[in-house]
Amino acid sequence: MIKVNNKEIEFTKFPNGETNMNHLSFPEIEESTVDVVFKYEEDGDLIRLMFVKEYLDSFFLGFVSLLIYSMPYGRMDRSENDSPFTLKYVSKFINSLGFHGVDIIEPHSNVTTALIDNSAAHFINFDLINEVMTDVDFNVETDYIMFPDGGASSRYKNMKFPNILIGHKNRDFTTGKINGLDVIGDLAHTPNKVIIVDDLSSYGGTFVHSSKKLKELGFNEVYLLVAHAENSIFKGELFDHVDKVFTTDSMLTEQDYWENKKFQDQLVVFELRREEEITID
Fold first, then answer.
1. Mean pLDDT across the stretch 182-195?
2. CA spacing 20 to 30 A to 174: which of 96, 98, 109, 257?
């Protein structure tokens, strides 16, 4: 999905599979600034983004900003054993489009902003956590926040709450499989509610292990807040182990959401939007 000044651009395909961009779906541009919003769903969206920017450049000379809902290939933020550094390649492509400013919602690591020119990260979980706490009637004095690993703990180190737990995964490095998870932290209060906070969920394996361990420790209610959730969250065991998942529409598609409507009581999706600043509904 690509929007220009809050209007979605229409795309179809020619019979041979080439992309046809409907230029009549572009809004009239009267301001000196154009805002482009980019929601990645598949690799063809990168080509569509190029078409949008090149077309804008053909008639608009002002400031063009880009908001990336979720950075594609953000997890591939290093090269190991000569593996392809795909985040670097995609970043180079986006840089070639020449946006004047790029806002990225909840990047997986600071490698993304280091690679993207004129970029800034927006960690929306710092705002969303307040929405989640209100929804679940969270008691800041006696309930707990959990970061499922050291990466999440570092990312959200400025999320100051009195009761913090950190997960430590027991992983088989030959297979990559998580065999279990330990919880580090002081259980000074009787376990009741806990909110797990992280940036991304795929199938949710890390959070399943986290929830199992938390319930062993006596927690009655386990909630999950992730800024980004892939459509694959509906295919694993996640909803069998957490009471409710809170996320945004940065990755979830409307079609997949409606096809999995059976999870509606366990899923809260915040709608992202861009006005003068990045906000949520």
1. 92
2. 109
